[in-house]
Amino acid sequence: MVLRILFSLLVAFIQFLVIAAWTNEYDLAAIQSLKNTWEHVPPSWVGDDPCENRWEGIGCNNSRVVSITLSGINLSGQLSSDIEELAELQTLDLSYNKGLTGPLPPSIGNMKKLSNLLLVGCGFSGLIPPSIGSLQDLVFLSLNSNSFIGGIPPSIGLLSKLYWLDLADNKLIGTIPVSKENTPGLDMLVKTKHFHLGNNRLSGEIPPQLFSSNMTLIHLLLENNSLTGNIPSTLGLVQTLEVVRLDKNSLSGSVPPNLNNLTYVQELFLANNKLTGPLPNLTGMTFLNYVDLSNNSFAVSDVPPWFSTLQSLTSLIMEDTQIQGQLPVSMFSPFQLQTVVLKKNKINGTLNIGSSHSDQLQLIDLRNNLIEAFTVTQRAGYSVQIVLADNPICSEGGTEKYCSIPQPSNTSYSIPPENCTTYRCSSDQISSPTCKCAYPYTGAIVFRAPSFSNLGNSSIFESLYEKLYLTFQSNNLPVDSVSLSNPTKNLDDYLILNLRVFPSGQNRFNRTAISGIGLVLSNRFEPPHGFGTFNFIGESYGYFADLATGPSKSLSSAIIIGAAVGGSILFLLLLIAGVYAFRQKRRAEVASKKNDPFASWEPNTNSGGVPQLKGARFFSFEELKKYTNNFSEVNDVGSGGYGKVYRGTLSNGKLIAIKRAQKGSMQGGLEFKTEIELLSRVHHKNVVSLIGFCFEQGEQMLVYEYIANGTLKDSLSGRSGIRLDWMRRLRIALGAARGLQYLHDLANPPIIHRDIKSTNILLDERLNAKVTDFGLSKLMDEPEKGHVTTQVKGTMGYLDPEYYMTQQLTEKSDVYGFGVLLLELLTARKPIEKGKYIVREVKLEMDKTKEMYNLQQILDPGVNRPPMREVVKEIESIMELAGLNPNAESASTSASYEGENKGSDNPYTNESLFTYSGAHPPSSADG
After folding, report:
1. What phi and psi values does residue 570 have, to the nearest 5 degrees?
2. How do residues 837-849 score in pLDDT, each as one tens digit?
3. Cα(428)–Cα(437) distance, rounded to whole angstroms?
4. Residues with catalytic roles
5. Residue ranges for the binding site for ATP?
6. Compositional bias (Polar residues) spans (predicted)?
């Protein structure tokens, strides 16, 4: 009876595992895509199912992937846009993988359940996608220590649950965004505790609107940027603040008087700005530990009374702040005081620090002042380092110790103290504090606003050491011991400590343990009071252990009984295994199809082989139907022989253009495949980017980036309402030429467009030209031949006569089409109009003996004649583009212009410029 119950439970449990462990098909496809994109993934990533096979770093709940924690395991590659399929993902931690590069995909904004996005210390670059503002459950956003550029997305202000915002140590530019009209901003983050934006390139003023009395902000870190203007008085409204770092900017004006309303502030850094006005009054800031107001332009002031009233002070740094007068003895009495630096001021009189000063006082640096005398008060067993160099007291060759400039102190020690110095470890292993040889995980902990300055007292760091160790233990990490060493201050006044974490049970960590340590140091460790906020910089770990398989166990009596009755249950188990294998195979096929949308591509004479893509994504018909509001007429932005173009809007707000071929008039599977293949592998600012494609339900659709101002033809004809002055036309010509040059010279193999015309040049919002429509393009896959023999295709009026007669397509065929395009730019006429061919018309009109070659009548006059100021400006711009100085003096005689170009042919004297007979291969100057 007992055996029957156990057997029933076993069957039920096996069924539960089979059902519950299978990964959701969308999650499976996304994880497989990441695996295919990244290098150095964990070796445990084998099998068909991440959840059932327990892939390292993948956390699952009821078949859904809810966490990816892979910090510090040497991953490299880019973050695939397929990650958006992980709809239930809550934590994404890829920190400390410097090999992860490239931009963040905008699709990351579709992961609505994400609460922790931790990408610290990687190699990500590009813009921070505005779609991050869609992550309404986000609590931790840590993108610090990467190479992000551009501005801070205003959409971050929509993250109402955000607790931690860290964008420090990047290359961000622009102003700090605040809300206005329908645009969000950081002022909306009233529940956010941390603004870490230091070490970027932010500029402009700190907006007063950024701060309000209903904010709960505790850390404001804006140091080392390029911020200007005044410190807004609204800062004094945020009475929850504990750390304020505005140092190393270009802030000016007076410090707002209400700054001392911030009674909970412990660290205040305003140094190295251009602040003026009176020295701020910090009376009442009773929790203040660390003050640095150095190197500003404050007005000359007497020693402020608050020097003696702030009893929590550990560090008073006031270099070059225009302080004058004699220092009172009482200012050295705060019981925590460690450092006083008042260099380069006008302090005078006699220095007397008294006998009741703090036992922690280590340094008083008063160099470059006017001190004339020093009253020495000895205390048994205790001394303070006093520096009075460059004061009158030392001006007559004083030899006293306080007249010398101290050398930097050596703080090379370890917590806990090394107790295994005589124990030697082999190879590159290191002896742990518990005398075990191992491969530790190492890195640096950087504290951005510590409240102390005395780095020589090891007792200060003991609380940090103990808290670190206990935190690792409480998170069930296999950590045997930790050590901290070599505390130093860098130029940004950050405290840096070397950290080593040693493994327990064996001499190295596995990937799960390293990722767990990284996660703790990303957002689960709260340092002891006095250390403030921190950042961990993990080093690469190259000693991974395989996952432990666990000790073998002796056969239990239950297993013996099970073996005895094994024959009776073998069939049932085999049946379960068969069902499991069938479902796994089916799921793997689904995942494979999602990762390879061409799994159903049917190669034939009309479509060619399966396309080889690089970056383009597959869109379902239903997706594109949704993005275009069922292909509504409102979104119809153009049409042609192939069909229509629709404007669409992705879920992240990005605009796209969808080229939908007409039913029954498809360009052909081969052309469709060609355009997908070519556009997916070309990336240039003057070539339209392909985002994706759709070919299901009998549809052929290409999804491009949306180009706001339509075709060049629309602008030349006046339909777009855009006036193309000559400078704009010149820039359009240059942009189109650069796009073509990229296709010819930099694409591998080279690409011949074969259909250059004004409808295939698009203009973006800044009127930059972008080459589009690659349906007729050809690869120069045998460049040594110099041509591709192919059926003649193209558009009449732009077609190269040489190609037309010989059927030999060359890069010069594109050059001919581009020449016609230039004539179209100059004349605003169609290539063939009322039976007249523009090339022939220009040739007939051109007379090189006359001014402007007699082409005034044929050139486009433009919509309006510009005023002379615009004429002058455009001429100056053209001269500058040609490398000439528009402000240089004119030559005195015509002979002054005769140099290396003397006697050379005018470039327009080449009659072949307008020849289209195909009598000779077109030269590089041919139209």
Report:
1. -60, -45
2. 888 878 787 777 7
3. 9
4. 755
5. 659
6. 887-896, 904-915
